[in-house]
Structure formats: C-alpha cells, structure tokens
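quick q for whoever's on today - can somebody do inverse folding on this one?? i tried earlier but teh output was garbage lol. tokens:
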C-alpha cells in the first residue's frame, strides 16, 4: 500500500514526463518551420512602375527563420523569383533563384526555405517590373 507521500512523488515524475513529451513535440514542429503561401497575381507582368510591387501577393511576405515560402503562379504567363533588387544587382540570386531554365509555369509553384533573418528584396527575372520583399524574423 502506497503512502500519500509516494503518490506525490509519482505525480511529480508523471508531470515531468508529460512536460518533456509535449516540449519535444513542440520543438520538432517549430524546427520544421511554418509554411507561407504566396502568389504571382493574374496579369502580374503588366504591373509597371509602383504597381509592380503588387505583382506578388502578399507583399511583403513575412516568414520565420526555418519557414518555407511557396509561390504559386496564378498568372497565365511563366515567371521566376530571384533574390535581389534587379538584373544588375551583383548579389542577384545569392539567397534563392527559381531559375530561367525552369520557369514557374502557370499553375506551378516554387518553394524556398529561409535559414537566416533579414529583409530580402526579390523580383521576376523575365519581368523585372515585378518586385517584392521578404521579411525573415
Ligand atoms: Cu514574370
């Protein structure tokens, strides 16, 4: 027969065990990172000047470190997404580049996982008027 003191010890051990299980499950979820959806909007390539910042939606895109953005092309034309401020940016493509040989066709998507905090400008290499910004926190 267990004394009340023993029940207390068993209870504390069980509570610690449950806390550890919940804690490790939470850690594995955050390690996988959040999925963030974005799009190339319909007629995106015709958005010139200031309106070019509406070609990608949402803009800016907010994502946590370890999170993944998936851009889906809702336009009828193929696009790309490449990090940088424009075609002449020496850092163009340093963070990500969907590529000019593997265009993101209408209805298709491209994903990138962000591993460091920062603000990253990006654009479409076919239509440099299409610009956006990613904020990784
Ligand atoms: Cu484009």
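ok took a stab at it. sequence:
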């Amino acid at each position: 027969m267990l004394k009340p003191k023993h029940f207390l010890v068993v209870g504390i051990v069980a509570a610690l065990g449950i806390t550890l299980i919940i804690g490790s499950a939470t850690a594995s979820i955050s390690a996988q990172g959040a999925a963030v959806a974005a799009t190339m909007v319909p007629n995106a390539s015709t958005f010139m000047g200031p309106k070019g910042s509406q070609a990608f939606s949402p803009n800016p895109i907010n994502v946590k470190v370890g999170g993944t953005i998936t851009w889906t092309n809702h336009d009828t034309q193929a696009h790309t997404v490449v990090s940088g401020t424009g075609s002449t940016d020496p850092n163009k493509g340093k963070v990500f580049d969907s590529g000019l040989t593997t265009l993101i066709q209408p209805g298709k998507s491209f994903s990138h996982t962000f591993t460091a905090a920062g603000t990253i400008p990006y654009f479409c290499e076919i239509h440099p008027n299409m610009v956006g910004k990613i904020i990784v926190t």
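fwiw Residues 119 and 135 are 5 Å apart (CA to CA). also The chain has one helix and eight strands. so keep that in mind when u check it
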